[in-house]
Design a protein that fits this description.
The complex is a heterodimer. By secondary structure, chain A is mainly alpha-helical. Chain A has helices at residues 2-35, 42-59, 62-85, 93-115, 141-163, 165-175, 177-182, 187-210, 222-235, 240-259, 265-280, and strands spanning 120-121, 131-134, 137-140, 215-216. Chain A has a single domain (2-280), classed as ABC transporter involved in vitamin B12 uptake, BtuC (Orthogonal Bundle). Chain A is built from eleven helices and four strands. Chain B has 15 helices and four strands. Chain B has helices at 6-29, 35-59, 67-82, 88-91, 106-128, 133-151, 157-160, 176-194, 196-206, 208-213, 218-244, 254-267, 272-289, 311-326, 339-356, and strands at residues 166-167, 246-247, 298-299, 302-303. In chain B, α12 crosses α13 (272-289). Chain B is globular, with a radius of gyration of 22 Å. Chain B starts with 5 loop residues before the first helix and ends with a helix. The chains are: A mainly alpha, B mainly alpha.
């Protein structure tokens, strides 16, 4: 019991952070599945979502500003895809990746300009910022809500991908870009839809993630972004359940490492895990077997 | 391959000497804190790092994002080895003066910085270079982050001073030193690129399978390119440490690698002179020419909107995005800026004119 009461807070925090990583990781894995692109800007979209909520709450009540944040983030994701990735559809993959890095740089600098480089205080969201006690540990409501909400959203997403027309189109495009275009699928619409879903989930993740932190700075999203990417690779890039499981594993292990007093290495651990996975099983836990085309 | 004429080499050397003389002149006449000198110093350092990254990304086709990590290793190696013995107690005040009880002259420190970075690259390369394209990018990015965590670890504090900064090591004051060092290193890289190894690197970039079929040992050449690139990134990191006069692990984030990558792209992947031009433009724009965007300005009674701290970087990143999207080849493409190149260009123009007439 003593062991449990000591470690429960870390475990809870881990599950919660894992859920937030999962929401970001889905955006990475879906985009990679379709475009074979590491969307380096995804972490920054996540930060911008946090900032939008901060600015929205200064003039609007919460019940308007939260939906507004979701809509604005989705719009941002859509614009980024149209402006920075679509013109490079036929360019080499490296160019698109460089473009993604450029967008990330732009969004960070834009955030820096608008915030003036100062940390912006994140508003306390009633209910989810309240504290509750789980067994011997006290924590915020958000910690408990996150995993539940994550799982609900993931199930909804799986239904969307498995049973709707647009979901079928997504799977087709991920499988074979050219053929699905020949079959009359509007590839550009499907890709935009992917970015819209990814940004929506990132916005939800951002609200849950930043509710745990007092403030947002322009580079707040970089680390969770990279970690979510690692989660996506760990679970097998292109696979949504894989990304979610990977994110939970990373979130929990990271917090257990913090609990053991090795905080310096909690970030390093994630990347070490990435390198081990890439070497031992490059396709990740649930990844499809890639055939090397010569 | 076309042979370069002797006269072209002589002209190039002369041009270089003129440039050196000009920098010497500026260095003597301008005050030490002048912005032009800052740009020149930083531009030289970034040129070296950008060229080293170009060797890897542009010439060998290995998309690595670990450059900042190797710069950090180089900078730290230099600082740890060259802090004078009598200054160590004050620098390592929390770690009883550290465990290194000697110091070496600065040039030994510079070379050691490169060698240590190359050794790390060799070790990291063993597992990582088996990966391809974006996986390699993420793995090298990850290694750079792991390195940063290690260098800030308190248990290694006797060596790295934990998360405190290292300082009081020998630094340079004149602009000539980074210029000469960087151009020497870039010269060596150019020689490597033009050697048979360099041709092997380019063969790997263009088609791995064909290169292997022609008898190029892929693993060996990739490792070699990775180590050479890291060696010079390490030297560049040491120069940066000298320039800053103090070094800390915190700024060597992935953002730094991204900046260097963007410089390489602006200059043109696969062009050494392009990387140099890109570096100077990048540094000059971010430190000097776009500075006015950061200051609030009023023309008469009209207050120019948007201008305040940070706007420079926004404009700057928009320009970069435009280059990335609409001028994918960068300034130089994969061509080089050279005397013979200019002459060929001029004669071709003349011929075209004659043909037209």
């Amino acid at each position: 019991m003593d062991f449990l009461s000591k470690n429960l807070p870390y475990l809870l925090a881990g599950i919660s952070v894992g859920g937030q990583y999962a929401l970001i990781a889905i955006g990475y894995t879906m985009v990679y599945g379709i475009l074979r692109l590491i969307n380096f800007a995804h972490g920054d979209i996540f930060t911008v979502a946090g900032l939008i909520l901060i600015y929205a709450t200064t003039i609007l009540p919460l019940y308007i500003s939260i939906p507004l944040t979701l809509v604005a983030t989705v719009a941002l994701g859509y614009i980024v895809e149209r402006a920075a990735y679509k013109p490079l559809r036929n360019a080499p993959r490296m160019s698109v990746m460089i473009s993604a890095i450029g967008v990330s740089y732009l969004l960070q600098n834009l955030a820096l300009y608008i915030t003036g480089g100062l940390a912006q205080t994140y508003p306390a969201i009633p209910f989810i910022s309240n504290t509750i006690s789980v067994g011997p540990a006290t924590t915020k409501v958000v910690t408990v809500i996150t995993p539940i909400l994550t799982i609900i959203l993931v199930i909804a997403l799986m239904q969307l991908i498995g049973h709707t027309k647009i979901g079928m189109a997504m799977r087709a495009v991920a499988n074979d870009f050219e053929t699905s275009r020949l079959m009359g699928i509007k590839v550009d619409t499907v890709i935009s839809m992917t970015f819209i879903i990814g940004s929506f989930l990132a916005a939800v993740g951002s609200i849950l993630y930043f509710a745990n932190y007092p403030s947002v700075i322009p580079t707040s999203g970089a680390m969770p972004g990279l970690k979510a990417f690692v989660a996506a690779v760990f679970g097998g890039i292109g696979s949504i359940p894989g990304a979610v499981i990977g994110a939970f594993i990373i979130g929990i292990s990271e917090n257990i490492i913090k609990g053991l007093g090795w905080t310096t290495f909690s970030d390093a651990f994630t990347f070490a895990l990435l390198i081990i996975v890439l070497l031992v099983k490059p396709t990740g836990l649930f990844g499809e077997k890639a055939t090397d085309k010569v | 391959m076309k042979k370069t004429r002797t006269s072209d080499i002589v002209i190039s050397v002369c041009l270089y000497l003129v440039l050196l003389g000009f920098i010497l002149f500026l260095d003597r006449t301008l005050p030490a804190t002048d912005i032009a000198l800052t740009v020149l110093k930083k531009g030289c350092i970034y040129s070296l790092v950008a060229v080293s990254m170009n060797l890897l990304n542009g010439f060998t086709g290995l998309f690595s994002l670990g450059q900042a990590g190797f710069m950090m290793i180089g900078g730290y190696t230099y600082a740890i080895l060259t802090i004078p013995v009598e200054a160590r107690d004050s620098v390592y005040q929390y770690f009883n003066g550290g465990i290194v009880r000697f110091s070496v002259p600065f040039w030994v420190g510079l070379i050691a910085a490169g060698i240590v970075a190359a050794i790390f690259a060799w070790l990291i390369g063993l597992p990582v270079l088996r990966l391809k394209s974006d996986y390699l990018a993420i793995a090298t990015l990850g290694f750079a982050e792991i390195m940063r965590a290690f260098f800030q670890w308190d248990s290694l504090g006797v060596l790295t001073n934990g998360s405190n900064m290292l300082r009081k090591y020998p630094a340079f004051r004149s602009t000539v030193f980074p210029f000469v060092t960087a151009s020497l290193c870039i010269g060596i890289i150019v020689l490597i690129i033009n050697s048979s190894y360099g041709r092997a690197f380019r063969a790997i970039r263009d088609d791995e399978i064909a290169a292997e079929a022609m008898g190029i040992n892929l693993a060996k050449h990739k490792r070699m390119s990775f180590c050479i690139s890291s060696f010079f990134a390490g030297v560049g990191g040491a120069l940066l440490a000298m320039y800053q006069t103090s070094i800390q692990a915190a700024p060597f984030k992935s953002a730094m690698t991204y900046e260097i990558l963007l410089i390489v792209v602006i200059g043109g992947l696969g062009s050494v002179t392009g990387s140099c031009i890109g570096s100077f433009l990048f540094i000059a724009c971010s430190e000097w020419w776009l500075r006015f965007l950061d200051a609030e300005t009023t023309i008469g009674t009209f207050r120019v909107p948007l201008l305040r701290s940070g706007f420079r970087k926004v404009v700057f990143s928009v320009i970069i995005m435009l280059i990335v999207l609409f001028a994918q080849k960068g300034i130089m493409g994969n061509k080089e800026f050279s005397v013979s190149g200019i002459r060929d260009w001029l004669t071709k123009k003349k011929q075209k004119k004659e043909a037209g007439a």
